[in-house]
């Protein structure tokens, strides 16, 4: 049941333009993101520093470039 509770229900963009842009840096409310899942694709670009991301129960460290 906890798996279903992690489903992110927020709609990103519109039906005609299903895309939303976020610029997240330290101090942003979504800087520390809770575990969640959704059926949409998510593109992430790291400009500086590192980002630890979990996908399918595996952790990855993302860096610029």
| Helix share bin | under 10%
Beta-strand fraction estimate: 15-25%
- Major beta sheet summary: 2 strands, antiparallel
Overall geometry: globular
Number of helices: 1
Mean pLDDT: 88
Span between termini = 37 Å
Helix and strand sequence: HEE
Report the structural category: mainly beta
Q: Compute the number of strand runs.
A: 2
Rg, alpha carbons: 13 Å
What are the low-pLDDT stretches, counting only 5+ consecutive residues below 50? none
Strand order of the largest sheet: 1-2
Summarize the structure.
With 65 residues, the protein is mainly β.
List the helices and strands and how they pair.
Blueprint lengths: L1 H4 L45 E5 L2 E5 L3
Antiparallel strand pairs: 1-2
Textual characterization of the structure:
The protein is globular. 6% of the residues lie in helices and 15% in strands. The mean pLDDT is 88. It has 65 residues and is mainly beta. β1 (51-55) and β2 form a beta hairpin. It is built from 1 helix and 2 strands; from the N terminus they run αββ.
Key features?
single chain; 65 residues; mainly beta; two-stranded antiparallel sheet; 1 helix
């Amino acid at each position: 049941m906890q798996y279903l509770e992690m489903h992110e229900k927020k709609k990103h963009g519109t039906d005609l333009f299903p895309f939303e842009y976020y610029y997240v840096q330290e101090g942003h409310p979504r800087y520390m993101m809770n575990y969640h899942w959704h059926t949409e694709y998510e593109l992430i670009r790291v400009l500086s520093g590192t980002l630890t991301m979990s996908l399918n129960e595996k952790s990855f460290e993302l860096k610029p470039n």
